[in-house]
Design a protein that fits this description.
By secondary structure, this protein is α/β, with parallel strands linked by helices. The chain has 23 helices and 11 strands.
């Protein structure tokens, strides 16, 4: 069913509301399910609100999505689960009693194990929630030698060993390039202060100035592997906290995105050896242009993290986050808070350049306050320091993701970017949006896409083919099925792995449900800031996939991952207010 490209005569929609064909719109009086479901949750949240009131959204969600430990559950040793002898023996804290484990184990979720089907053996053995697909009646593990031989070598790169994690935790890992540059920088600053007669000037006072030190005054080092990539004209999937995980990036790679980036990693956590942070560095072999994004506010810490990533990971670039608007990063002086301190930015960027051999890129916003733009002052500086790519989100920190992105300002910044490619970002959700900014308005050298890709990951194919894809509900479900398969390969098929896959699937669904099928729109394309009125799809599955209710998202997860535990609860992390 083709959607019309122009408004229908007599069409009436509220301001900021997507124009859906009348036959699919539900009368507002009928649509009370969302309010009914939300009321008990709101009441429960209000009861838990103790102490000082906090700003922001979902301040108390952390404990709700954690899987609850099962009563009387037996934790089986990993070695015993795959039929091997435990190397620790009696000192092992896990159970070696296979019979007791199988008696207490939850029922299998299906008869086919995705890991066994792909690789010929399952590393989770009896702990796998599809264990009977590769387990004999005597509880021994089946191995398909033919599949094992045909299976491709490890497709996940940048996996840190336990020994490396220990080295980081014990501070045994050295960062000579960062430390050497830090000494040179401080010496150059002392010389500059002495020449200016201001040896005792505080750095805070220098930050208040718009100007930074000239390029020739800062220490330099010869580049090696930089400049290999021409970023211009390539599609770029934004680094997305929580939802920008490796399985999601694989889905987007399947739709043709060119550049991918890790979730934001905290620099300090990396050099402290935190396992959850090191896991963010992983790269799938299909990600042919891949970078790691770091966040921090101290040049020495960010430099050490960049040096570690450059030395130990297969990456094409390392990105400095200066766009994150969340309070946790901003109040610690990182993310978009750096935009108020150009001298600090310079020191961090130059340290990263000195400590690494790969490209250094930057992602930033128009400024901190809505009416005070600073990006146009920083862009020429980035170019002069040797930054390989700048990406400008067309909103300030104060705006976060509300209001319309200022693409005219992005175009102004591109005019002063000199030789550095400048990408733009904000509100792109269709191929018309993309090519309008790239070719018609000529406002940037490329576009980074975040929420648009979360809502419709096939957007990259639409951009390449320059057409609207009226994707069917079954095709959308197949995308989710592919994500769960990738997720089980990444997080595992044991109980904890399945819980992680479900959690990240549900987090993604908080964006996916916002897609409005092209065939029921009166006007194309869908705009990211337009809220849909309550509507039904062209079939039951399409209606379910478009539901804003978390309980329906759970139903979708059960279609793919089996039933949830009786005490399962979920509160989405991202309650988007970007329609405003």
């Amino acid at each position: 069913m083709a959607a019309e490209t122009q408004a229908t005569e007599g069409q009436t929609t509220s301001r900021g509301e997507a124009p859906i064909k009348p036959e699919y719109v539900i009368q507002r009086e009928v649509n009370k399910a969302a309010a009914t479901e939300a009321a008990p949750l709101a009441e429960e949240e209000s009861k838990r609100d103790t102490g000082e009131k906090k700003s922001g959204q979902n301040k108390k969600r952390a404990a709700k999505n954690k899987p609850k430990p099962r009563q009387n559950a037996v934790r089986l040793c990993r070695s015993v689960a795959i039929g091997e002898e435990c190397p620790i023996g009696a000192a092992c804290k896990s159970s070696h009693d296979v019979a007791a484990f199988m008696e207490k184990k939850e029922p299998d979720l299906g008869s086919q194990c995705p890991i066994f089907d792909e690789f010929g053996k399952c590393v989770f053995g009896l702990r796998c929630r599809y264990a009977m697909a590769h387990t004999t009646a005597e509880f021994t593990q089946v191995v398909d030698d033919e599949k094992v031989q045909k299976a491709q070598p490890n497709q996940v790169l940048n996996q840190m060993s336990r020994d490396m994690q220990i080295r980081l935790r014990k501070r045994l890992e050295k960062f000579p390039r960062t430390q050497e540059f830090d000494v040179q920088w401080q010496a150059s600053m002392k010389d500059k202060d002495a020449q200016a007669g201001s040896a005792n000037t505080e750095e805070a006072a220098r930050d208040a100035q718009d100007d930074t030190v000239k390029t020739e005054q800062a220490p330099k080092r010869q580049r090696k592997a930089r400049g290999r990539i021409d970023y211009r004209g390539k599609t770029y999937l934004a680094p997305l906290t929580t939802v920008g995980n490796l399985p999601f990036r694989r889905v987007c790679k399947g739709f043709g995105v060119n550049i991918t980036c890790s979730e934001m990693a905290i620099a300090g956590n990396i050099i402290q050896g935190q396992g959850s942070e090191l896991a963010l560095l992983k790269r799938h072999a299909s990600e042919d242009i891949f970078g790691v994004q770091l966040a921090g506010n101290r040049a020495d810490i960010v430099g050490k993290a960049a040096e570690f990533v450059s030395n130990n990971c297969d990456v094409d670039f390392i990105d400095l986050n200066m766009g994150c608007p969340i309070d946790m990063a901003f109040n610690n002086g990182g993310g978009s808070a750096l935009l108020a301190h150009p001298r600090k930015i310079e020191r961090i960027v130059r340290t990263m350049l000195a400590a690494t051999d790969c490209d250094i890129t930057v992602k930033f916003r128009t400024g901190i306050s809505r009416d005070v733009n600073v990006a146009h002052k920083l862009v020429p500086q980035f170019a002069s320091w040797g930054t390989a790519l700048g990406t400008l989100h067309g909103r300030s920190r104060q705006q976060r993701y509300t209001k319309v992105a200022d693409w005219d300002y992005i175009g102004e910044c591109q005019n002063v970017a000199e030789t550095m490619p400048l990408f733009g970002g904000g509100d792109v959700m269709s191929w018309e949006d993309y090519w309008g900014h790239m070719e018609t308005q000529k406002q940037c050298d490329g576009i980074m896409i975040g929420r648009g890709a979360l809502i419709k990951p096939w957007l990259f194919r639409e951009i390449e083919e320059r057409r609207v894809w009226d994707i069917s509900a079954s095709e959308r479900l197949d995308i989710l099925r592919q994500f769960t398969r990738f997720g089980m390969e990444h997080w595992g098929t044991d109980t904890q792995g399945i819980a992680n896959v479900r959690r990240y699937l549900l987090e993604w669904q908080s964006f996916l449900h916002r897609y409005i099928p092209a065939g029921i729109l009166e006007v194309l394309p869908q705009k990211i800031n337009e809220r849909p009125p309550p509507f039904v799809g062209r079939n039951d599955l399409e209606t379910l996939l478009s539901s804003p209710l978390a309980s329906d998202w759970v139903k979708i997860s059960e279609m793919l991952l089996g039933p949830v535990p009786d005490d399962f609860t979920f509160v989405p992390k991202h309650k988007s207010n970007s329609y405003e």
